[in-house]
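RESIDUES AND SHAPES:
===
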Amino acid sequence: MEISVIIPVYNEAENVEPLYEKLAPVMQGIDGDHEIIFVDDGSRDTTFEVLRKLKEKGCRIKAVQLRKNYGKSKALLAGFEQARGDIIATLDGDLQDEPGEIPGMIKLMEEGYDLVNGWRRKRRDPFGKVMSSKFFNLMTRLFTGVKLHDFNCGMRVFRKEAVDDMADSPALHRFLPAIVSWNGYRVTELAVEHSPRVHGKSKYGVEKVPKGFGEFLSLFFLVRYTSRPLIFILVSGLLSALSGFGILAYLTCLWFKGRGLSSRPLLHLGILLLLIGVQLLLIALIVGITVTAHKREKYIIKSGI
């Protein structure tokens, strides 16, 4: 058995060396061969130089540097394509994930699971980040039907075939457990330790919320049909339809109170917005399926060691 450990990093110059020092003895204690792959997602600091020095010192690592910051999804995709192992493990590069959890996750796979997802039961993050994550996980459980507590945990262990069968799926890292489950593989979770961030800054901020919301809509409407929608059209259609529905609901309340509606311009606006919204949603669905199906997200590798 060969295990590939994939670690996407972005501006983690202070963390990659201590992370390797924690990870290396863990991997050496597991039967079989292993490889450790760092994917530098266009860091603006000296992350890749630190990785290069580790390689020069004889550390058993591979590293690829992407041309720019593509985001965690594409960084993981780049790592998947570099991996040779029968088992693929992922963890974040911020030292908040504990490498010592990997053997337990691999052992759990012996019960027939194809993906073991980490569950940060005790999060060591700011209160706002924890609460937004809880809300996200609740909504994802409701709409995907996959009963996990922590979809966005970076610590996961896959079977290689489960990764290969995601080849034509959108690389939405937050929803990988749902995609794997929908492809017919068995998914479970394991509570893992989570440490507070010591070095560097979190890559999660308020600016990530609109993107996460768009990806959530992508998942709900189209991921199950193996294509990625035109998120702008989808969001615009949803907002238009909801606005039109809200206006019509308001006017319906007035009608029940005996007020006339035929002369109200607001009635025509509500109908128009609702019709436009429905049409945009249908366009996003059809175009998303027929045009973007079976297309993988692209990235450019700048260098590798």
User: Anything to note?
Assistant: Residues 86 and 160 are 5 Å apart (CA to CA). The radius of gyration is 22 Å. Strands lie at 2-9, 33-40, 62-66, 87-90, 115-119, 156-159, 187-191, 301-304. The longest strand covers residues 2-9.
